[in-house]
Write a sequence for this structure.
């Protein structure tokens, strides 16, 4: 009973905050609503006994992604009024498509209610002696090593991409180069010149 | 030692290790020596192609990785196309003093992703393969970060790609929910007697996600903008190998995973193919930029390839493989011609700039004419054979209404290829053309020679190879 | 010794080789070589034909067919390119090759000033090849090929002077009118194939009697199948042989060079229709209604053309109408069952009509391309040889000769036809009709033929008074033959280089022109009494050997009703009317010279009716040309506004329109793109849902 109440509460909060994400006038508010929706989704995970996923959601999405969003939105000088131009214009057709998709999703839900998901298969019960994190840890480097390594390469590409697209060696910035500093000799730092009278040394 | 090369995953291992080695090496030697990295990258990819064509077949990682004839055929083509892309791209970047050692590494990693895609035995490896490839492509699209158009292209590609990944993942979760498995083998068993609404919905989401990757309409919107904005060699790469990889993945997902729902996905694919014909044929009519034009051309051509899958027969898969390979050669050569030519220091990437090419560069004009006729589907050029295979398969499977639609679309699309030819041969040049580039010229000439007459020889071995590869799923 | 088959192949394809050489390489090898090649090959072909003819007539050579190669094969339909050699084709071979060879030779003189000689000779040879293919055909397909081939060559030659607007118009007219006939012809071939399942003559003919009573139900009526086939095929013959209703092209065809008129529009091509009817005599003998139609059409044509011929002033047009009239004779001969007489008239007519045309050409050359007879006169003194030849031709065409004794060529064949018609008329109204018309036309023929001769060669020299045509000297070099519509002839100034007057009197023509005239004169005199025994007389059965139905073949009956002796008055009737015609012509044009002109100037409805060719051109112009144009305009409107707008243009427009719409959707905004993707997802999901449920 208590679980049911918690479920409906959190589900309603998730949906409602999701709606506010797209309808809020201020993008900063939108991000804050998004954080709320992540939180309540994490609560739903906890209800299902997937506490590790709930933690991931909070740590990664709330702690990193959403906060990053927040900084970006706050730092960029975005003209919020212009951003919302045409909202009313797109609303009807967008609403129709959304309604269509929603109806179809509802139909899928009926299918679930009707025959049950997973074609009648039972979800594998978590091992009694192990936590979520432990169970995942057991398979991550064994059965799923292929995916794990491949995901690592995906992240590597993301890194390479970030560097390639953003790293700049600005030519006129002075940097300290220890190697050349230490290897400096008198001969490549000094020159003896004998300027003629009245000509200066500018051209040497 | 040699047994290692015989391992089913040897090509992927070679590329992954080589990429991981070449990355720090490149960082150490710097961009000035990027040519060395590119050269090594080409060597590695060619070696991987040889290994992929000759190593042992097998299934690894609990069915997540499948190396069968179908995958082997695609891998060889993908690795070779990637090698050509490194060659073309390196020269292009070198001419702009913008060589970066990351470029060959990114291509190699993209090839690794494509290799994962074609070998995907379950939905997770499917997704990770797609992401691996896509992420590399996003970076490549924006590789000329100081050009506004390239940055815009990269960003659009990334944002829309993310949306499509979301759609795809949603489909994966639905499928998992309704079939209880991520593995194609299990899914196939679950839907053997016909798929329920939930699984079919998941399948449609999956199809939509994959359709984005092959730029089939109506998920094609990114294509013209990315083709126009991204650097030409990158586009030449996008248009070839990733399309083949995505098509092969498409075929595997449909035929290995959802054979029981063939009645549904065949219909859905036909709709996608029909929209692609129309959008590709009609959309190209008003284009002035050749790269945009080729984007629409690729949309239409993907429609034909999808038609091969929609046929749901072994002959259809064979047709799809032959079509894609012939199309890859054509389109790579097409972009190579554009890279080879310049006028006023600019690439000749508008149709207008090709005016009077016959007078100034008769060789290039002939090459471009052959390629245009080929993509148009004029016998006896390779494009004709490609379409011939597809239409034969489609009609063999009883899909003749859609085949007729495809033929009509070819006729409409003929307009813009013929316009290129007309502009080259009958119009006056606007300003003198600069000297053409040797490297892309060779690629273009080789491609044109393949289009005709080498294709006639090539089909002798391509036909049985593709048939053999297509037999991997045991369809009729 | 080379066998006859090989020789015949050579004879048929020789002209084609000549045409190819002169046509494709004429410019490179020059005028004289191309003329030599074509003419030489034609003479070779002619020699072979005569040799073959001799072998057939006196050497007892049997009928044979050389099958060269399959032409078309579709299902049961099979056509083989072959050379059929029998009495009919032997006859036609010598007619065609002889006239053609002579015309080639003649053209050396006639076309001496023309810049397009290789082209001209190539066309002539091409025509000859097509005609030979036609006469040696062993099935309808090859017959049709030759039929169209001669039509093409005729079109090209009528329009040979392509910068002359009237020549182009005439060539188009000939082509279009022939299409009407060819349509019927093609339908006839279809009918035959549908009925018998074969188009080979040798397979077809034995089957005909079994189909005699067969009817087809079509548009609520029963049609006799054989009569239908016969009629449709005859429509084709009408077009090619310029019979009534489809005759209008022939007089206009005189726009072509005169040698062409002699070869194509007198001796050979226009007789193809007669030849076909005779060839198909087994069919027509079982299709009596169709045969009567042939008979009546022929008779009407002969009367019609003869009356029109009375009033024409252009020398070539008179001969053209004469040709038309004589073809009518041949048709009604065939129509009364006297195929042998028809063929014989074809044979003799080829000789004397070619002679008349070539003689007229000689006169035209002498008069520096003046064609209006009213501007001639008194030429006998200046062109004696031409005069002699023309006189022989005129005697031959009027059929002068004493029954029982002998006469010129036309006498034998024309009298045979009239007698046959009389014999047929004993139990057939169509035959009697034809007989009376034949007699009347014989008189008219004599009148207009002698009128031509007298106006040209006798009387006062109208040209001597500086006829207006001297004035006009600027005409282009090649435009050497005038367009002489009768109603335009007054302001027709003749486009010659120099007109003729007292100081430049007409001169006799050169040898290349005179030699053919001489050869044909001999033929016009002798063809009758030399060959009459074979075509009509005692050697008849031995000559035809079944090539014509009922004569000398298996099951020959008492061939042709015309062998019974008709009454004496019938025998002498043609002679009497011919002489009457001669006398009238002499009265009007010799004794009372100028009387005819006054009569013509005074007009009178009958003269105007004849002069204007029964107003056929006007009628056709009103009904077909204007009507067709009205229909065409209607269709043009419909095509432009309905078919094009909905079809190609509409498609192109909607393609471009959708392209414009597409590029508007392709706005560059990521959220638009994303929205389109979502639309796609939603649409496909809906579609899939519809599929599942």
């Amino acid at each position: 009973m208590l679980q049911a109440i918690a479920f409906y509460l959190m589900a309603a909060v998730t949906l409602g905050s999701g709606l506010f994400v797209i309808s809020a006038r201020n993008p900063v508010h939108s991000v804050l609503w998004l954080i709320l929706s992540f939180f309540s989704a994490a609560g739903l995970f906890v209800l299902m006994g997937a506490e590790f996923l709930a933690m991931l959601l909070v740590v990664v999405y709330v702690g990193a992604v959403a906060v990053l969003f927040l900084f970006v939105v706050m730092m960029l000088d975005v003209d919020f009024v212009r951003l919302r131009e045409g909202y009313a214009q797109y609303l009807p057709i967008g609403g129709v498509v959304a309604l269509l998709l929603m109806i179809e999703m509802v139909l899928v839900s009926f299918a679930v209610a009707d025959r049950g998901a997973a074609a009648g298969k039972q979800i594998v019960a978590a091992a009694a002696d192990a936590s979520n994190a432990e169970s995942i840890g057991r398979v991550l480097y064994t059965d799923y090593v292929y995916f794990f390594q491949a995901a690592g390469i995906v992240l590597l590409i993301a890194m390479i991409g970030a560097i390639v697209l953003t790293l700049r060696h600005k030519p006129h910035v002075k940097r300290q180069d220890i190697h050349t500093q230490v290897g400096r000799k008198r001969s490549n730092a000094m020159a003896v010149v004998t300027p003629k009278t009245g000509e200066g040394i500018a051209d040497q | 030692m040699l047994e290692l090369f015989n391992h089913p995953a040897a090509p992927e291992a070679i590329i992954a290790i080589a990429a991981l080695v070449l990355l720090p090496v490149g960082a150490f030697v710097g961009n000035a020596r990027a040519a060395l990295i590119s050269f090594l990258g080409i060597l590695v990819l060619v070696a991987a192609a040889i290994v992929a064509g000759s190593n042992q077949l097998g299934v690894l990682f609990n069915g997540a990785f499948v190396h069968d004839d179908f995958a082997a055929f695609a891998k060889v083509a993908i690795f070779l196309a990637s090698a050509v892309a490194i060659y073309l791209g390196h020269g292009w970047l070198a001419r702009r003093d913008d060589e970066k050692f990351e470029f060959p590494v990114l291509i190699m990693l993209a090839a690794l992703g494509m290799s994962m895609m074609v070998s995907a035995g379950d939905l997770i490896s499917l997704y990770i393969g797609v992401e691996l490839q896509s992420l590399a492509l996003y970076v490549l699209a924006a590789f000329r970060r100081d050009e506004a158009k390239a940055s815009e292209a990269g960003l659009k590609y990334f944002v829309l790609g993310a949306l499509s990944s979301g759609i795809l993942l949603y489909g994966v979760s639905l499928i998992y929910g309704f079939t209880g498995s991520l593995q194609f083998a299990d899914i196939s068993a679950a839907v053997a007697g016909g798929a329920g609404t939930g699984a079919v919905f998941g399948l449609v989401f999956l199809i939509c996600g994959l359709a984005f990757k092959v730029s089939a309409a109506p998920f094609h919107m990114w294509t013209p903008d990315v083709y126009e904005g991204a650097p030409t060699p990158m586009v030449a790469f996008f248009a070839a190998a990733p399309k083949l990889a995505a098509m092969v993945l498409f075929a595997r997902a449909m035929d290995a995973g959802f054979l029981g729902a063939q009645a549904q996905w065949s219909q859905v694919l036909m709709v996608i193919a029909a929209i692609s014909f129309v959008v590709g044929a009609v959309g190209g009519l008003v284009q002035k930029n050749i790269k945009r034009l080729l984007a629409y051309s690729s949309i239409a051509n993907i429609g034909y390839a999808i038609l091969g899958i929609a046929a749901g027969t072994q002959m259809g898969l064979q047709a799809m493989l032959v079509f894609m390979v012939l199309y890859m050669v054509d389109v790579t050569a097409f972009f190579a011609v554009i890279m080879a030519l310049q006028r006023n220091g600019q690439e000749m990437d508008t149709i207008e700039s090709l005016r009077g090419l016959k007078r100034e560069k008769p060789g290039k004009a002939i090459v471009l004419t052959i390629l245009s006729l080929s993509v148009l589907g004029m016998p006896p050029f390779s494009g004709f054979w490609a379409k011939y295979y597809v239409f034969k398969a489609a009609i063999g499977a009883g899909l003749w209404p859609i085949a007729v639609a495809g033929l009509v679309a070819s006729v409409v699309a003929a307009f813009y290829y013929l316009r290129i030819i007309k502009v080259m041969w009958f119009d006056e040049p606007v300003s003198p053309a600069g000297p053409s580039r040797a490297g892309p010229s060779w690629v273009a000439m080789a491609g044109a020679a393949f289009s005709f007459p080498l294709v006639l020889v090539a089909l002798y071995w391509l036909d049985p190879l593709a048939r053999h590869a297509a037999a991997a799923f045991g369809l009729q | 010794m080379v066998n006859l088959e090989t020789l015949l192949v050579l004879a048929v394809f020789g002209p084609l080789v000549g045409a190819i050489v002169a046509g494709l390489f004429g410019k490179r090898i020059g005028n004289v070589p191309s003329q030599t090649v074509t003419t030489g090959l034609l003479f070779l072909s002619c020699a072979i034909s005569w040799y073959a003819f001799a072998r057939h007539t006196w050497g007892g050579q049997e009928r044979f067919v050389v099958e060269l190669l399959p032409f078309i094969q579709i299902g049961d339909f099979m056509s083989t390119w072959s050379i059929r050699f029998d009495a009919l084709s032997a006859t036609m071979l010598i007619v065609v090759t002889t006239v053609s060879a002579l015309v080639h030779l003649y053209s050396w003189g006639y076309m001496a000033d023309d810049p397009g000689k290789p082209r001209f000779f190539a066309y002539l040879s091409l025509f000859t090849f097509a005609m030979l293919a036609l006469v040696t055909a062993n099935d309808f397909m090859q017959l049709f090929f030759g039929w169209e081939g001669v039509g093409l060559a005729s079109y090209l030659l009528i329009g040979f002077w392509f910068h002359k607007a009237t020549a182009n118009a005439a060539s188009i007219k000939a082509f279009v009118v022939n299409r009407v006939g060819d349509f019927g012809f093609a339908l006839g071939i279809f009918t035959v194939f549908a009925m018998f399942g074969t188009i080979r003559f040798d397979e077809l003919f034995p089957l005909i009697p079994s189909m005699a009573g067969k009817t087809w139900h079509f548009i609520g009526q029963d049609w006799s199948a054989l009569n239908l086939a016969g009629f449709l095929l005859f429509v084709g013959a009408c077009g090619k042989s310029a019979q009534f209703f489809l005759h209008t092209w022939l007089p206009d065809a005189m726009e072509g060079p005169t040698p062409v008129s002699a070869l194509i529009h007198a001796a050979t091509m226009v007789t193809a229709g007669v030849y076909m009817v005779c060839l198909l005599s087994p069919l027509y003998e079982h299709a009596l209604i169709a045969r009567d139609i042939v008979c009546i059409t022929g008779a009407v044509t002969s009367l019609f053309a003869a009356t029109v011929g009375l009033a024409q002033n252009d020398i070539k047009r008179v001969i053209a109408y004469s040709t038309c009239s004589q073809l009518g004779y041949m048709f009604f001969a065939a129509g009364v069952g006297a195929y042998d007489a028809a063929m014989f008239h074809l044979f003799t007519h080829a000789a004397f009509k070619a002679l008349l045309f070539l003689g007229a050409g000689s006169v035209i050359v002498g008069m520096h391309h003046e064609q209006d007879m009213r501007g001639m006169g008194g030429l006998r003194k200046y062109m004696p040889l031409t005069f002699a030849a023309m006189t022989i031709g005129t005697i031959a065409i009027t059929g002068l000769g004493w029954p029982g004794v002998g006469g010129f060529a036309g006498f034998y064949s024309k009298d045979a036809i009239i007698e046959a018609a009389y014999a047929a008329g004993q139990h057939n109204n169509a035959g009697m009709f034809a007989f009376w018309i034949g007699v009347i036309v014989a008189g008219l023929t004599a009148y207009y033929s002698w009128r031509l001769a007298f106006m040209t060669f006798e009387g006062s020299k109208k040209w001597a008074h500086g006829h207006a045509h001297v004035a006009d000297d600027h005409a282009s070099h090649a435009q050497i033959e005038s367009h002489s519509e009768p109603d335009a002839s007054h302001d027709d100034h003749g486009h010659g280089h120099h007109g003729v007057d007292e100081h430049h009197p007409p001169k006799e023509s050169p040898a290349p022109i005179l030699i053919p005239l001489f050869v044909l004169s001999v033929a016009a005199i002798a063809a009758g009494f030399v060959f009459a025994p074979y075509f009509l007389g005692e050697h008849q059965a031995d000559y035809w050997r079944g090539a014509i139905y009922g004569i000398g073949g298996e099951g020959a009956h008492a061939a042709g009703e015309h062998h019974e002796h008709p009454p004496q008055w019938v025998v002498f009737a043609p002679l009497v009317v011919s002489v009457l015609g001669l006398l009238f012509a002499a009265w009007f044009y010799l004794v009372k010279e100028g009387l005819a002109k006054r009569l013509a100037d005074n007009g009178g409805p009958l003269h105007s009716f004849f002069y204007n060719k029964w107003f056929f051109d006007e009628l056709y112009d009103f009904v077909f040309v204007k009507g067709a144009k009205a229909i065409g305009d209607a269709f043009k409107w419909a095509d432009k506004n309905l078919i094009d707008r909905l079809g190609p243009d509409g498609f192109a427009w909607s393609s471009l329109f959708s392209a414009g719409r597409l590029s508007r959707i392709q706005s560059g905004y990521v959220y638009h793109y994303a929205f389109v993707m979502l639309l796609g997802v939603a649409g496909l999901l809906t579609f899939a849902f519809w599929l599942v449920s």
